[in-house]
Design a protein that fits this description.
This protein has a seven-stranded parallel β-sheet, sandwiched between helices. It has a five-stranded mixed β-sheet with strand order 28-34-33-30-31, with no helix packed on it. Helix content is 12%, strand content 40%. The protein has 1532 residues and is mainly beta. It is extended, with a radius of gyration of 53 Å. The chain has twelve domains: 193 residues, no CATH class; 361 residues, Peptidase S8/S53 domain (Rossmann fold, 3-Layer(aba) Sandwich); 85 residues, Sandwich (Immunoglobulin-like); 90 residues, Immunoglobulin-like; 86 residues, Immunoglobulins (Immunoglobulin-like, Sandwich); 90 residues, Immunoglobulin-like, CATH 2.60.40; 79 residues, Sandwich (Immunoglobulin-like); 91 residues, Immunoglobulins (Immunoglobulin-like, Sandwich), CATH 2.60.40; and more. A hairpin with a 4-residue loop joins β63 and β64.
Length: 1532
């Protein structure tokens, strides 16, 4: 971004703008809260300095919240400058090569050197070329900054706030508009930018999961995450590292050792196991992967006291550490927490701190070995309030910083951003020097994933492995792709391009470490030309998914001298044996030499091999191995590959162990161990303690050696042994052990009668449980004390015991003693003795009544007990014992009760029982009377009858003595006659059809009456009528046994009508079976065979009346039979392939059609059948002499077809047919393509020598002329399309003169063979090239081209060039064909012609196809007076119209317009949208009139509009403005 673009200013409007910005600054100061005080270094609170103080920020100061929004940051800076208050700006400077050269010369002159010399005189300190260039660049940076700031206008209001000495960037404080304008217009200034904030580009699962379960629980389960606030992925880096080939690369020796990665992020919790469990940076040296950690802030001594502000940096750094297994990590924290106006906080990084971190890296890179930076952070570009993809941004300050880093030998992997954009990346990924990284999934996820919360960024409805994530920003200048969703490392599970970037940073570190002499461009090229190509469906951009091993192998192949690596014992740090195993990997090597020291020349050389056993030198200590490689030309690698390991063959000494200072016994299993021992390397000494004997290898866990340790002995009394193993880092071990006796205090428990609460006898059973180590027990009825207790005896589990006499609560006390005569207890148990049974038990029913008509009665109960609260009762309708009675319930004086069913005398039995089980009983009687009842059914429950004479089925209830039947409900009193009940009774229903009822009344012995019981039946004496039946609609014939029956008939009660169908006639309807519900149609199966078939129908109504009908049809289901086939009247041979076939057959319905085949096993299709005719002319198949067959399949008039054909045979005997020959194309290429119209036909086989004549044609017509045979024979194809082609080749041998028949045929028919092949004579066609955008203009030379071509053999490659007069022969490079191609134009502005050439699979090359591309960086211009703008309002909308011709562009055409609008105010820029500014697109109509209708406006409201023009390259102009008001709600 140039200075003028960052802060647009127009001289004619400057005063008005400054006044407006002053007001805006006041509004912003009111709208955004101040930060809360934070603890100062001394622990107290420190208030923030005033916003306008201009003083330097103290340690821990936080920037105002408004810098979170780039647009607000810019507005705030402008407002402060307008009010002559200081605003801090990031300024980048243009440092030219001549500036640097000038400084090199000055340095050289001061040293007395020529500028090109690499070393100072002997008397001076040596100065390398790299140091000279670094010093010259620093001085050039300083000189350009000084030159700009010393100019008069700049001096009036610009001062250096912070100088980033290694970069052409500085933080300036500017407090005047004049100074700002001077900076913007200075030719040595590249950009002037507001001090904005950056965010991390990773999404975590720890506090607020970004994964929404919009597509089912499978989304999270597939990731191995529980989905809660503490979600963790169980698979760690199991998928992502193999996806990029990291394990294989490490196994090949590519570990990143010697190249440190600076992770510019939120810091790193280096205590995490993934980072080596460091106690502080670099410690312990054996495991710690973080060699330095530093907070970057304007105040150099700033430290926020946190290892990591959020866990993001730990996750990113851990990915680097796991992927590059021996790279060191430099953790740089640039993020801090800032206050939110809502009372919360947000995490951001200051632009100045990020640039400062890059500056710090360049200062420390040689000291710390830094060769790669990772930046998992970014900020999107904005169009108004909308996030948009950033174009390439070479002039931004951070881009200048990354370019300086790359020039100094440090590559930066940068996350592309998580905004889901496909038209650009975020800042700083847009920097040309950045290796920008997009994200892919490393595993499939069932159900898909949704990303982002309020609002949702995007949704991947399906997720498969290697799919580009929808949140990943993408564009043509993206560099590579890497796994980024989801990644668990450093105790954090996160997803985003933040997690993809460290995979690439690790890969770059591996390449830089392994190939120190290779250029940075070579490392990036290896990264981008290997791996798997993946295409983003959103924009068709294709980029590689990185592969670490492939990239390393690619660089190794390009090395001019042999290079390689060596690992000892798989990379182990220690060994206890001098004999080790070397794993050696090299490229370009034919020989190698292994040595214990780096000495030249190395001898002896031996053939290169990937593994070798090696003997280390004597003595413990660090040992080195050096491997020199030599290629076939004799070139030796320099320096050699090397590795080191520490030899320790001496076991730890003096192991000793004591427990509790050597005590003999202990009463507690918690003991203190005293441990001693030493080793040659005490820092790595470990120990393992066990309660069981074990080996050094099996003992676990090992922990760092400590002189004392708390320990828990195993449970249980007795002798205990603790075993100690000491083990050093090399695995040498020594052991010791110690013993102690564990005593247990005697204890136990007791229960009486299994824990019962009551007993009715003093004789009880004690249940005694003695604790561990108890040897004796003593029982007493009182707490007499253990010393006074008598009769100590061995403890038993069950003991009979006598309680003291008398009812009441009784106690038992048990004391315990161990082998050491220590006593414990007492264990106690309580039980209540009650030996007195309840008294006065009595029971009465319904107050002593003699009888009842209801089984529900009321019982009166009485009785008492010594313990009335626990008295229970049990009631039963049958006599039982107290023990068997159930259930018991609390005593109650009254209770509702149900007598058993049935009339007669009933007895109720009562038991009273107290808590101790004592019982007493009583009983009472009553007589139960039952009301008379019963039931009746007619004809056993039938629903219908066809006669009024029926049988009643009567069931009389219990106690019924008489019954009375009537046809109407006359009542029991009027019913006559009464008689003894019978189970079956003949009865006459009333005359007439319809529903009839029967009523039965009942009487018991007490003359009580009940009922009536009722039954209903319907009388139907009329049979069904109009019975009819037809088969297949009355057809005469049926071809199959399955037919359709049409059935007719009706009845007075159609719902009860049934039918029965049968293939045999029955004498009566009752004999037919089965009956089913009547249906008007039914599928029926006729009897098999041929002939006439009859179906018989019976209709029967619900009352059993019936009617019948029948129908017949002729059935033919068999194919023609007795088929005979005869060829040429039964002749044995034929010299002609044209024969006559006679066919005879018989069939019930007659033969109708036939199918004739001449190939064995050939099947007849529908189209093969023709009308039957005999004889039939048939063409036999051509080919070798011998048997020929004719197969005939016949079909009758009803479609019955023979299952197998009939056949006949004849012998084809033509001596002119050669035997055992095949034909092929002799001049087809290796892919099987014929690329010349002259086809060479080759004949092979044992019969090829007998061929004398040949006839070739391009269709199957008969040969008209033969030519003498030449092998191969050339045939020139007629013109035709590329693709499938065919020739028909007829070969003929000489015919003996004696064969007159064949002589008459002109020498015989010969053998005709088809010859199929693929032809490709032409280059690719339908070639096209154009900008992917569909326009002819672009704003950048980095373009995406759409290319297309077709070819029968496939389009293999494409070559694109903008070189004038280029040809296919001169065009380079050729690349794999893909519909979308990235290309960089040579010209940075203006018109260019792009040529595309295409090559097919057979190397035919097309002529060039051209596209004109115009690079247009200029913005459209519009003048209001030429626009003829008009506004037509309504109460809810305003339609704007204007002339398209009022907007012009210097290079490309104006292609469109959009309108920005807001209430009351006019939007002040086309490129930035404020919070309340909205956008509507315009439409260009006829006559160049443009219109846009703004809807959903408020009535009577004034609005400001800005009409913005867009040219074909996408550049947006400044726009023209207009104000207009909507009509009121009344239309005024």
């Amino acid at each position: 971004m140039t200075g003028s673009a960052a802060f647009p200013a127009r001289p004619q409007r400057r005063k008005a703008l400054l006044l407006a910005l002053l007001v805006l600054a006041q509004l912003l100061a009111t709208a955004h809260g101040k930060r809360q005080p934070r603890p100062a270094d001394g622990g107290g609170l420190q208030a923030p300095p005033l916003a306008d103080s201009g003083a330097a920020a103290p340690s821990g100061r936080r920037l105002p919240k408004r810098f979170r929004d780039p647009a607000l940051a810019e507005a705030d800076a402008l407002a402060r400058i307008a009010a002559n208050q200081p605003a801090e700006l990031i300024v980048s400077f243009k440092v030219s090569k001549s500036d640097i050269k000038q400084q090199e010369s000055q340095i050289a002159n001061s040293l007395g050197l020529a500028a090109a010399d690499a070393a100072a005189p002997a008397a001076a300190e040596p100065l390398s070329k790299r140091a000279l260039r670094r010093e010259a660049r620093m001085r050039a940076n300083a000189a350009v900054k000084q030159r700009v700031l010393s100019r008069r206008a700049a001096r009036k209001g610009a001062r250096l706030k912070r100088d980033f000495t290694m970069l052409p960037v500085a933080l300036l404080s500017v407090n005047s508009s004049e100074a700002l304008q001077a900076l913007q217009s200075d030719p040595s200034v590249a950009s002037v930018e507001p001090r904005i904030m950056f965010t991390i580009t990773g999404r975590g699962l720890r506090d607020q999961p970004p994964l929404e379960r919009g597509f089912g629980d499978g989304a999270l389960k597939a990731l191995g995450v529980d989905g809660g606030g503490g979600g963790r992925r169980r698979l760690l880096l199991k998928e992502s590292l193999p996806m990029i080939g990291a394990p294989e690369a490490a196994a090949a020796g590519y570990t990143g050792k010697g190249c440190a990665v600076a992770v510019i992020d939120t810091g790193a919790d280096y205590t995490q196991p993934d980072l080596g469990s460091c106690t502080k940076p670099g410690q312990p040296a054996a495991t710690c992967r973080v060699s330095a950690a530093h907070d970057i802030h304007l105040s150099d001594d700033y430290d926020d006291g946190e290892l990591d502000d959020s866990g993001h940096g730990t996750n990113v750094a851990s990915i680097v550490a796991r992927a590059a297994t021996e790279s060191q990590i430099i953790a740089l924290d640039v993020f801090r927490w800032f206050d939110d106006s809502g009372g919360g906080q947000f995490l951001s990084a200051d632009y100045a701190d990020i640039v400062g971190a890059i500056d710090w890296v360049l200062k420390k890179k040689d000291e710390l070995g830094i060769c790669v930076i990772n930046m998992s952070l970014g900020s999107p570009c904005l169009s108004g309030n909308t996030k948009v993809g950033c174009p390439a941004c070479p002039e931004r300050a951070i881009a200048q910083a990354l370019a300086s880093a790359r020039a100094a030998g440090v590559l930066a992997a940068v996350a592309s951003g998580n905004d889901g954009l496909s038209t650009g990346l975020s800042i700083p990924a847009c920097a040309p020097a950045a290796v920008s990284v997009g994200a892919v999934y490393d595993a499939a996820v069932a159900g898909g994933l949704q990303w982002g919360l309020n609002p949702v960024t995007c949704t991947d409805r399906t997720v498969v492995k290697e799919q580009i994530a929808c949140f990943s920003n993408s564009f043509s200048y993206l560099t590579v792709l890497a796994p980024g969703a989801m990644i668990t490392a450093g105790g954090q599970t996160m997803g985003g391009t933040s997690q993809a970037s460290p995979h690439v940073a690790a890969t770059l570190a591996v390449l830089r470490a392994a190939f120190k002499n290779a250029t940075l461009d070579a490392a990036v090229e290896a990264l981008t030309t290997t791996g798997k190509a993946l295409t983003d469906p959103r924009n068709s951009v294709t980029k590689p998914l990185i592969n670490m091993l492939q990239a390393a192998n690619k660089m190794a192949e390009g090395a001019s001298i042999p290079v390689g690596t060596v690992r000892i014992n798989g990379g182990a740090q220690w060994t206890s044996s001098r004999t080790v195993a070397l794993v050696i990997q090299a490229s370009g090597a034919t020989q190698m030499c292994v040595a214990s020291e780096a000495a030249a020349p190395c001898t002896p050389y031996e053939p290169y091999t990937t593994s070798k056993a090696w003997q280390l030198s004597d003595g413990d200590g660090e040992k080195g191995v050096f491997v020199y490689f030599k290629n076939a030309a004799g070139t030796v690698s320099d320096p050699p590959a090397n590795a080191s390991i520490t030899l320790d063959a001496t076991a730890p000494s003096g192991p000793a162990l004591s427990i509790n200072g050597g005590a003999q016994s202990t009463s507690s299993p918690q003991v203190t161990l005293a441990i001693s021992g030493t080793d040659n390397n005490p820092a790595s000494l470990q120990m393992c303690l066990a309660n069981a004997q074990t080996t050094a290898e099996a003992c676990t866990p090992y922990e760092p050696f400590a002189a004392t340790k708390n320990h828990t002995l195993p449970a249980g009394a007795g002798s205990k042994t603790v075993f100690l193993w000491l083990r050093d880092a090399a695995g040498n071990a020594a052991s010791a052990q110690a013993q102690i006796t564990l005593l247990v205090v005697p204890s136990g428990s007791v229960a009486i009668n299994g824990g019962a609460v009551w007993t009715n006898t003093p004789s009880v059973i004690l249940n005694i449980t003695a604790g561990e180590g108890v040897t004796e027990a003593c029982v007493a009825n009182t707490a007499v004390d253990a010393a006074a207790c008598q009769l100590w005896e061995a403890p038993v589990a069950s003991k009979a015991w006598q309680l003291p006499d008398g009812d009441g609560e009784k106690g038992v006390f048990v004391y315990f003693k161990n082998a050491g005569n220590e006593t414990g207890g007492p264990a106690t148990a309580i039980i209540t003795l009650d030996a007195t049974a309840p008294s006065g038990a009595a029971l009465s029913i319904d107050g002593g009544a003699q009888s009842t008509s209801s089984p529900q009665v009321t019982l009166a109960i009485s009785g008492t007990d010594n313990n009335p609260a626990s008295l229970q009762m049990c009631l039963s309708n049958a006599q039982t014992t107290a023990e068997a009675c159930t259930p018991y319930e609390p005593f109650a004086a009254t209770k509702n009760h149900t007598l058993p069913a049935g009339a007669g005398s009933k007895t109720v039995f009562l038991w009273l029982r107290d808590a101790a089980g004592n019982a007493a009983s009583a009983q009472a009687q009553i007589t139960l009377l039952v009301a008379p009842s019963g039931s009746v059914a007619i004809n056993s429950g039938a629903v219908w009858t066809n006669t009024p004479s029926v049988i009643l089925n009567i069931t009389a209830g219990e106690g019924v003595t008489e019954a009375c039947v009537a046809n109407t409900a006359v009542g029991a009193a009027a019913c006559q006659p009464w008689e003894a009940p019978v189970a079956s009774k003949a009865w006459q229903l009333p005359d007439g059809e319809g529903e009839k009822g029967v009523f039965v009344y009942f009487k018991n012995a007490g003359n009580e009456t009940g009922g009536p019981a009722t039954a209903i039946i319907t009388v139907d004496s009329t049979p069904p009528v109009n019975a009819s039946l037809t088969i297949n609609g009355g057809a005469e014939w049926a071809a199959g046994t399955d037919v359709n029956l049409t059935i007719g008939g009706s009845d007075n009660y159609p719902a009860g009508l049934q039918m029965c169908l049968t293939a045999t006639q029955t004498a009566a309807a009752g004999e037919c079976t089965p009956y089913e519900a009547f249906a008007a149609s039914k599928v029926w199966q006729l009897l098999a065979g041929e002939g006439e078939r009859t179906v018989f129908l019976w209709l029967r109504d619900a009352a059993g009346s019936s009617a019948g009908a029948s129908a017949s049809i002729k059935l033919d289901t068999q194919a023609p039979s007795g088929v005979a086939v005869s060829i040429n009247g039964g002749a044995a041979e034929t010299a002609s392939l044209d024969v006559s076939v006679a066919i005879t057959a018989g069939d019930f319905s007659g033969v109708a059609s036939m199918c004739i085949k001449t190939a064995t096993g050939a099947l007849c299709s529908e189209g093969d059948f023709v009308a039957f005719a005999s004889p039939a002319a048939v063409k036999l198949p051509a080919g070798a002499l011998g048997a020929r067959y004719v197969y005939v399949t016949l079909r009758d008039a009803l479609g019955n077809t023979m299952s197998a054909p009939a056949s006949d045979q004849i012998t084809y005997n033509d001596p002119s047919v050669p035997s055992d020959v095949t034909v092929s194309v002799a001049n087809a290429n290796s892919n099987g393509w014929v690329t010349s119209s002259d086809v060479l036909i080759a004949v092979s086989g044992t019969g090829a020598a007998s061929v004398t004549e040949i006839c070739v044609r391009e269709d199957e017509a008969a040969c008209t002329a033969f030519s003498p045979f030449v092998n191969p024979t050339k045939y020139t194809l007629s013109s035709g399309p590329d693709g499938d082609r065919a020739l028909f080749v007829t070969l003929r041998t000489a015919v003996p003169p004696a064969n007159g028949t064949l002589s008459a045929l002109g020498g015989g028919y010969g053998l005709t063979l088809p010859l199929d092949f693929m032809a490709d004579f032409n280059p690719p066609s339908n070639t096209r090239v154009s900008l992917s955008s569909g326009t002819g203009s672009t704003a950048t030379p980095h373009v995406s081209l759409a290319v297309a071509a077709t070819d029968v053999s496939g389009v293999k490659e494409v070559c694109i060039t903008d070189e004038p007069e280029a040809t296919a022969a001169s065009c380079q490079p050729w690349r794999d064909f893909n519909p979308t191609q990235s290309f960089t134009l040579a010209s940075s502005e203006g018109a260019s012609e792009v040529l595309a050439f295409f090559r097919d699979g057979n190397n035919h090359v097309s002529s060039g196809v051209a596209a004109n591309v115009t690079i247009d960086k200029s913005k459209p211009k519009a003048k209001k007076r030429n626009m003829d703008m008009k506004a037509t309002p309504s109460s809810s909308s305003i339609t704007l119209t204007w002339s398209k011709d009022g907007a012009t562009d210097d290079i490309s055409d104006v292609s469109g317009f959009f309108v920005l609008y807001r209430p009351n105010y006019t939007p002040n820029s086309c490129e930035r949208r404020r919070k309340r500014t909205k956008l509507v697109n315009a439409a260009i109509g006829a006559g160049s009139i443009v219109s846009a209708t703004v809807k959903d406006l408020k009535p009577g409201k004034r609005y400001g509009f800005r009409v913005c023009a867009v040219d074909a390259a996408g550049n947006v102009g400044g726009g023209v403005t207009l104000r207009a008001s909507t009509k009121s709600a009344r239309g005024k």
